[in-house]
Amino acid sequence: MIITRYLVREILKTQTTILFILFLVFFCQKLVKILGSTVASDIPINIVLTGLGLSIPIMAQLILPLSLVLAILITLGRLYSDHEIIVMHACGLGKRILMQATMSIILLTMLIASINSGWIGPWSARYQYTMIQNARMTLSERSLIPGQFQKLANGNIVFFVQAIRDNSLKEIFLTQLHQKGNSRPYIVTAEYGHIKRREDGAQIITLNNGVQFEGTVLFDDFRITSFKNYQAIIYPPRINQSICNTEQMSFPALWLSDMKKPDYRSELHWRLTLVFSVFAMGLIAVPLSTVNARHGRLLSMLPAILLYLAFFLLQSLMQSSGKKGYLNPALSMWLINLTYLGIGIILNIWDTMPVRRLRERFICRDII
Length: 368
Fold this sequence. Notes:
The chain has nine helices and six strands, in the order ααααββββββααααα. By secondary structure, the chain is α+β, with helices and mostly antiparallel strands. A six-stranded antiparallel sheet has the order 1-2-3-4-5-6, with no helix packed on it.
């Protein structure tokens, strides 16, 4: 039908615009976080754009329901303000035509949300984790920078060299910060040395003509050793490229996993809630998009936005409590889902003829 296509087209245009704006906002937030890690020499700058691209499916999990709600509120609110919907009703087209158009968008968004949260999002999180871990290992294996203090071996060793020429080092300072096994913290200084890399990525540092100070401040047992040759092996950090958390598991793998573990069970119901929220919040947004001439469009949108915020705040609380084993997510999260579904159904049938007649009967009985 022409009217249905018109409504679908208008809602889709608005939703696309809102998605673009929301992605820009979340992009800026993610960019600041990634650039902070780059400045701290945690990840190289050449993976910034790749990291941002891989963050899109993760950000879309929460952005898709919000974009749908705002698109329905803004589009239908504008049509109410411009009296287009009033003309539709005058021509014999009831609210059924609005539901047909919005349900088409809701089902399309639900399909995209299910694919994204079930497969694309976990793949993106897993690939991003592997890429960052490999980048950190590359940073740990890079050549030492002269004149700068650098942390090695997961931050347990601080290394400083005054000058580097090829693989030769000059004026070296090395210290172990924390006690490791039976060895005590130590400080090593040397006049010169050289560095060599093994095939497994480990670095062999050989120092010449230096002194080692071993001991702690709490005890007087210090040991000072002079040496001509001192050798230390610094191993690269181990990279675990396997799936390390539930956020990186696809939906089939999560469904077939051990549901007795609270974090697996909570993640499964959280992903189902992300898809179900598109339907529930879209259903609520249709009747709440009606614009009251006295209040204006912005104030008329306020109840729907407050319901949306309350929904995801409660569901986030239920998810975190479910991961810790405090609550059963199958009960707590779906109780909220069914409550919002009931709110949506009540709001949509509230102004229908059967409900009007039922309300009139109760009002007449109260008067009598």
